[in-house]
Amino acid sequence: MKEPVSSKRDIARELARKYSTMTHDELDLLEGILKPMKFKKGETILKTGETCRNIYYIDRGLIRQYYYKYDKEVTEHLGEDHTIFMCIESLFKEEPSQIQVDALETSVIYALPKTELERVALHSVNIQLMYRKILEESLIISQVHADLVRFETAQNRYKRMCKLMPQVVLRAPLVYIASYLQMTPETLSRVRAMPG
Predict the structure, then answer these.
(1) pTM assigned to the model
(2) Which ranges of 98-173 would DSSP assign to H, the alpha helix?
(3) How far is the CA of 59 from the CAs of 2, 82, 95, 170, in angstroms?
(4) Among the four 12, 112, 118, 172, which has the fewest Cβ within 10 Å?
């Protein structure tokens, strides 16, 4: 059974529920700037060298953010339904991104253009609060990932990921999960085979 398609209003309400409370007028402002986008599996959402101009909200789907290091792809983030992603450095410095973003599944995504978000935030404390909470969440997610790969054993990294992102573990290809956890696919296979 196919899930019903969310409207821009549904997404505005979801963002308000998750990050802030909003009046009808504020929901109208937020709904007015949301840009719905659809990507097929394997399609690129943002290419390396493009400037990120949006904060993205995944209504449905799975995305991967990655970069190249010594000609190898390194997965930096895996995003799933009802989560936010952005290339934060590119977004705020308004410079080309070192990161590429691809859809790992057919994905329905809503873009919040930064310039429009900042414009409407000037007139709404609640939209400012939502914007701040989105940025805080993004920074925390980055910190959790950095700490995970710095301080945890391979087995604990995988266990934490299963707890924090169970849907991603079920849906993302193992090669990307291994890359995200900074281990080889062979190590990941061994870790997954361990009891408990």
Answers:
(1) 0.93
(2) 114-121, 125-151, 154-164, 166-171
(3) 14, 5, 27, 18
(4) 118
Q: How far apart are alpha carbons 88 and 94 in whole angstroms?
A: 10
Tokens of 17: 């529920």
pLDDT digits (tens, 9 = 90+) for 33-78: 999 999 999 999 999 999 999 999 999 999 999 999 999 999 999 9
Give the alpha-carbon dihedral of 38, 2, 12, 55, to 10 degrees. -30
- Locate 30 and state its tokens: 């937020």
Give the residue carrying structure tokens 């799975």: 62
Residues 6+ apart with CB under 8 A from 98: 48, 67, 89, 90
Can you list the alpha helix ranges (DSSP code H) found in the chain?
Answer: 8-19, 24-33, 88-93, 114-121, 125-151, 154-164, 166-171, 174-180, 185-193
Mean pLDDT across the chain: 94
Helix crossing, 24-33 with 125-151: angle to 10°? 60
